[in-house]
Model the fold of this input.
Amino acid sequence: MAESVVTENGEGGDATRRDFIHIAAGAAAVGAGAMLAWPLINSMNPAADTLALASIEFDMTKVQEGQQIVIKWQGKPVFVRYRTARELQEAVSTPLSALKDPEADADRVKEGHSQYLVVLGNCTHLGCIPTFGTGDFGGWFCPCHGSHYDTSGRIRKGPAPANLVVPEYAYLSDTRIKIG
Amino acid sequence: MSDHESTYVPKTGIEKWLDTRLPIIRFGADYMSLPTPRNLNYWWTFGGILALCLVIQIATGVILAMHYVPNTEMAFASVERIMRDVNGGDLIRYTHANGASMFFIAVYLHMLRGLYYGSYKAPREMIWIVGCLIFFLMIATAFLGYVLPWGQMSYWGAEVITNLIGAIPVVGEPVLIWLRGGPAIDNATLNRFFSLHYLLPFVIAGCVVLHLWALHAAGQNNPVGILIPKDRQAKDTVPFHPYFTVKDGFAIILFLMLFALFVFFMPNALGHADNYIPANPLVTPAHIVPEWYMLPFYAILRAIPDKFGGVMAMFGAIGVLFVLPWLDTSKVRSMRYRPTMRTFFILFVIVGLILGWCGAQLPDAPVIGTFKTFTLIDGDLNSYLWLTRFATAYYFAFFLIIMPLVGLRETPRTIPATISEPVLSGGDAEMKG
Done:
């Protein structure tokens, strides 16, 4: 039976139709496979309860001048630093041309609160926690691979590609911030 | 070897019955009677040693998983419980932890043997490529396993290594969050790492089957590196059993003695004291170092002053191995007959050791004494940073420049026509190889 059908339609035409069916069936199978795989892959994304821990509040009066407090937000450390007048002066007076990732100090703090610097405490290289006061630029130094940050948390030397990240935060009152 | 005919004759009724339904005894018997080049030396015993390593890791791992709790609150304590309270738990865990190191010692020697004797060259490219895949899976498995005790090194190792993925432009960040299952390394990460650490050894076992399949299709290489002519099969090969089962067995006993030395007398010699401190996301240890077997690649990562560039170089150092069969232009397999290449090979082994040593040092620390010489671009010349860079340059040059060029330009020694010829003629050049 099958053979006679092939002859009737002509070999060329039949081959094309068969190819089409093969490709269409193959494409449908790949599509179906992707649709089945997606929920499995997506389940590895952050779960609802993980995302629910998205914001915290912090009372700025806890930090004294020249002091740094480390708080945990989304499992990561956040540095809240009350900068001294000298540190602030150094951060403001650094010309942008001296920076690897140029960003003015004013863009990294909130207006009227420029003494407080709030940054994520993970080195932008591979995520270690830099320590304050040991670097060449008066700011942080990462012991893992030797990145130096200045008093504004900007990268000055070493393998890190970017400045310490300023998280999204806002002043709820004069002394209280909400991160996230 | 690929056209090896079956000599198995089923004797008992059960064997005959089974042989027409599931010829599994025939499969084993054929494997044991496989014609094997008679000149294989002890460098060829690491294949069997590695198979044993995989079995030891899976057996001890399955047992450890019965006592371990993959939860950030309990993981560290459950490992301590294994060490103190579980019957023989300390021995099982020390075997598993040191077993990983033993596995890597054996795999590095196995790979260097392949490199020296040209075991990657035609017609054995697929054996080598599957082997590289196994090596890559081993690194992944070892990394995942190291995170599970949830000590300080576990946590910060995971932080640093997952951050490598974040270095990929555009997709890096979302992929990183997906991989960790949250904005930071946390319980979701630990759970999936445990799941994958349990899965990957079985993927490795599957790849080992492919590795052996390819080996038996192409036939084993040998120290002389020639393909055995058909008419010499009978003279130049011996059955795998008992000749090489005994040789492998002897090597395995020696290897297990080394293994036992570590497990019983210095079980923590290859580990880091920091990993006996519970993970703390707010404190980074002063000096993060991976396990010794990853140090050369870690050194390469740190040698490049650019984040993404460093990641590319590190993966490239493993990636280049996959295309090795096409980088080597020489027609001669064994470096016994390639004196120029042998010199470069010895230098490569030394450079590999230097890279490993550099990976454990602080990049800015001076190599010789405590003095400074002069600053070259971004670091003092007398620093591990620059030693690492020179070594990294040689690592890549060995594969990408030396190998293609030497193959075209060198004059190899005369290759014997059969593997018994160098033995019968006194084998003066060969003894040095």
